[in-house]
Amino acid sequence: MSASSDTAAHVETQNISFPELVELLRQVFLRNGTSPEVASVLAENCASAERDGSHSHGIFRIPGYLSSLASGWVDGKAVPKVEDVGAAFTRVDAANGFAQPALAAARPLLVEKAKSAGIAILAIRSSHHFAALWPDVEPFAREGLVALSVVNSMTCVVPHGAQRPLFGTNPIAFAAPRAGGDPIVFDLATSAIANGDVQIAARKGAMLPPGMGVDRAGLPTEDPKAILDGGALLPFGGYKGSALSMMVELLAAGLTGGNFSFEFDWSKHPGAQTPWTGQLFIVIDPNKGSGQNFAERSEELVRRMHDVGQERMPGDRRYLQRAKALVHGIDIPVAELTRLRELAGVQG
Amino acid sequence: MSASSDTAAHVETQNISFPELVELLRQVFLRNGTSPEVASVLAENCASAERDGSHSHGIFRIPGYLSSLASGWVDGKAVPKVEDVGAAFTRVDAANGFAQPALAAARPLLVEKAKSAGIAILAIRSSHHFAALWPDVEPFAREGLVALSVVNSMTCVVPHGAQRPLFGTNPIAFAAPRAGGDPIVFDLATSAIANGDVQIAARKGAMLPPGMGVDRAGLPTEDPKAILDGGALLPFGGYKGSALSMMVELLAAGLTGGNFSFEFDWSKHPGAQTPWTGQLFIVIDPNKGSGQNFAERSEELVRRMHDVGQERMPGDRRYLQRAKALVHGIDIPVAELTRLRELAGVQG
After folding, report:
1. Fold type of domain A1-70+329-348
2. DSSP H/E element including A227
3. ipTM score of the complex?
4. Chain B residue nearest residue A84, CA to CA
């Protein structure tokens, strides 16, 4: 580790390696109510987001995780129950625990089914997802598989044409292998903006672009604080994004047996922040698709996208940050690192 | 049939029943180079779009179908070859024919696999899709299944951040059963506007809303003629719609073995209008999803969408038109009906 200072914002930072950050976060989770299995999965996930520059899903989320655990809303020691219900269908009851350990428990069976049947589905229910979605799908593409995942969250998005919020931010993530580089991966909220980015803007005192949300009276606003204070988000892309958000509710909750975004009541758990819903995965083995090599075909698409002037592929910014972190480590504000060490019970 | 005149636009129309329109279009296709099997499938598809008010995919498309057939670009008598490649994976080589007969040929196997394995995929390659996508998915939902389909078309959309077009309009269609009414069905182009709607606006001399497309110089335009004359469309919803359009290329072409939207060359077939690409289906049996009844869960979602003020569900406008047509028949301009009868070789 080395100390430095961010001259632009005058925030003193300290440098930490990725493995050090994973271990620190693992200790934080372990000391705050999770099992060793859950602590390992969440620490890896959260540290990956921080490393890749997904700051709204990095260590920024730790207070939310911990207050949710402390409130008794989510079970940090839940043991997911994997159910094999068909040649291409796996279910998991996450038992009121986090979604990522449920995925980890079912993953070997899901991959085996996808490779033998050609496509497979994983339906996770009674799960809490409080992270970015891309870490869930990227590893499938690194194994040569194509993966799609959707997860619903909590009511904060007004359906197109409606007056009041109903949907969650309901992201869709997709990953596909390519022959000449890192997988093609996107992770997009079907809301016009992600909740985490609204929170970060509010913290900074920054305004948002128009079209992102409404205030508590249902009127358009560019003030993130007005959105968070009883307002709501809008779907991206008008009625189309709204239709996709509805699809996410149907797949991630309706089909899995999880809660819709409007169904759970956390009012008796002050501090609870993690949506108690469901998550769906569809994983395809592209080797069954045709006589052609899929990864070479996707590489050809990327090449042509560059040719017409698209310089950055979805995922590229994360890969760049990741490569930097591998060499230089991750810079974290000293105050945040100190707080994490306190939470982990380790000396600074 | 009965004759009437549309007083608003002073276009004289004639009334025809849905079965009469299907039969008329079947004769048109039969007399213009298709096999009886292909004629039946395309006639039903095209008449359904006209009946449901999807005018940009109804009889408006007939000249495009016929000029493509006449050019030798598409094989109207192709016999699709169905390949069973896994417990949940079916492929079809459409053999340079239309996509809908390929779907019809593979559909029984696809449904059987979805019901036994829980999910199944259908990868159609070397196919021409020149129709709306919702007629492909709606019937699955009427059987209690959840269906998703994507199809790529021809280069006409500029990827977000790029300078020149590459993607097709690349629609995504989704259908899910609901207990209390017609299935929830949406069919959305990942372009900001569908090609057919640009053509219809150009025909009418109407302008488009901003953000739909660019002219041949790559500059934003609201003139549909400028878009059609060497210009291009934009994706819906900025980088998010663009990412989804890319996903459609990867699934509908990369995975199936079909052509990407930029790969086929129809310059030696003047009159060719049908994109020679691929199409992907994912069909899920929601009965394997949880202990709950999916159709009742989706009905609950619809009820809540109505509660927050969304009056019209995706698909409702089509169902309303369909119900009207069942009672009153379909009004078609006399000039168009006369032309169809000439093409069918029948007396008016």
Report:
1. Hypothetical Oxidoreductase Yiak; Chain: A, domain 1 (1.10.1530)
2. helix A224-228
3. 0.95
4. B288
Query: B153 and B167 in contact (C-beta within 8 Å)?
Result: no
Q: What is the mean pLDDT of residues B55-66?
A: 94
Q: Where are the domains of chain A?
A: 1-70+329-348, 78-191+235-312, 192-231
Q: If pLDDT is split at 50, 70 and 90, which confidence band does B8 have? A: low
| Phi, psi angles (nearest 5°) of residue B76 | -70, -10
Which residue type does B308 have? V
Model confidence over B247-259: pLDDT tens digits? 999 999 999 999 9
- The shortest CB-CB distance from A240 to any of B117, B236, B247 is to B236
**pLDDT > 70: percent of chain B:** 97
> Which helix (H) or strand (E) element contains residue A6?
strand A3-6
| Beta-carbon separation of B162 and A254 below 8 A | no
Residue A93: strand pairing partners: A81, A125
pTM of the model: 0.96
DSSP A145-158: -EEEEEE---S-BP
Give the three-class secondary structure for A240.
helix
Minimal Cα distance from B295: which residue of A?
A: A254
What residues of B are in contact with residue A262 (Cβ under 8 Å)?
A: 304
A192-231 folds as: Wheat Germ Agglutinin (Isolectin 2); domain 1 (3.30.60)
Q: What are phi and psi of B147, to 5 degrees?
A: -135, 145
Beta bridge partners of A159: none
- In whole angstroms, give the CA distance from residue B205 to residue B55: 17
SS3 annotation, B277-306: EEEEEEEECHHHCCCCCHHHHHHHHHHHHH
The per-residue pLDDT for range A153-176, each reduced to its tens digit, is 999 999 999 999 999 999 999 999
Say what the pLDDT of residue A9 is: 56
Q: Is the pLDDT of residue A2 over 80?
A: no
| Residue written as token pair 């009674």 | A126
- Out of A88, A146, A161, the one facing B88 most closely (by C-beta) is A88
